[in-house]
Design a protein that fits this description.
Distance between the termini: 14 Å
Number of domains: 1
Helix content: 25-40%
Structural class: alpha/beta
Bound molecules: zinc ion
Strand order of the largest sheet: 1-2-3-4-5-6-7-8
Order of helices and strands: EHEHEHEHEHEHEHEHH
Length: about 270
């Protein structure tokens, strides 16, 4: 099983990432892909990937951080330097987020869009696929992706931690994107402001377009909900998906692994 999106580069793992990685590998996780959310966490994702053969990095500026001063004027050049390093396999997590967070509110959508588009252009320059973050912004994200279709790779990338309407799912699939599901698929009911259950969206997604991720340290699957999430729980999510898709767990492992290699052609 591959965890295609997590954050061992975050503070929550700073004291025990080595034990967390070793435990995941022992339990059968074959690759762990850490994703950056700003420049420093992107750099850390790359540093981690250089330490372990099974780890890879995806680098980018999350829409939450699109308005931070840290970015400065040369942020895209700084990001390009990071993205050109070995073991970087994609640009992410990038996208739009229209959920109002207690700590952060909503970053000005105009700034979010500018930062998103600038990073689509960088991915085009470096021939890298995208790992997209979408919260309550599917329509605007799709509008931008359709406008910039000429800049996308043949396999354009994936929507990480998918949520949204059936229409957004359909259009993302039509554009060639893969769809990531996380531990929140094990939660009963609907997330705030969402309208379709994740299980239903997973049923509508062909198995050859699904990837599995933990988003550790967040979105811990049941029965560990409330604890810190770990890459090894990607196995629990895979098992849950095997029930939703009515196929064996082995089939889930085989197909989702193949899918990750199809998206990220720099993954070895
Ligand atoms: Zn995200
Ligand atoms: Zn994330």
């Amino acid at each position: 099983m591959i965890d295609v999106h997590c954050h061992l580069n975050f503070h929550s793992f700073s004291s025990d990432y080595d034990a967390v990685i070793k435990s995941a590998l022992e339990k059968g996780v074959t690759r762990i892909i850490n994703t950056g959310t700003k420049l420093d966490s992107s750099k850390l994702a790359v540093d981690l990937a250089k330490q372990y053969s099974e780890l890879f990095a995806i680098v980018g500026i999350h829409p939450h951080h699109a308005d931070k001063i840290e970015l400065g004027n040369n942020w895209i050049d700084d990001l390009e330097m990071i993205a050109k390093q070995s073991k970087v396999i994609g640009i992410g997590e990038i996208g739009l987020d229209y959920f109002s967070y207690k700590s952060n509110g909503i970053v000005d959508p105009k700034i979010q869009k500018e930062v998103f588009i600038t990073q689509i252009e960088l991915a085009h320059k470096l021939k890298l696929p995208l790992q997209i973050h979408n919260r309550l912004a599917g329509e605007d994200i799709l509008m931008i992706l359709k406008e910039k279709k000429h800049l996308l790779q043949t396999v354009p990338g994936m929507f990480h931690c998918f949520a949204g309407t059936k229409e957004v799912l359909k259009e993302a699939l039509n554009l060639g994107f893969f769809i990531g599901f996380d531990g929140n698929i094990t939660y009963p009911g609907l997330a705030p402001k969402e309208t379709v259950e994740l299980k239903e969206l997973a049923k509508l997604t062909p198995l050859d377009r699904i990837v599995v991720e933990t988003d550790s340290p967040y979105l811990t699957p049941i029965p560990h909900r409330g604890e810190r999430n770990l890459p090894e729980y990607v196995i629990l999510i895979g098992k849950f998906l095997s029930g939703v898709k009515e196929v064996s767990y082995d089939r889930i492992v085989e197909q989702t692994t193949q899918n990750v290699y199809t998206i990220f052609n720099k993954l070895s």
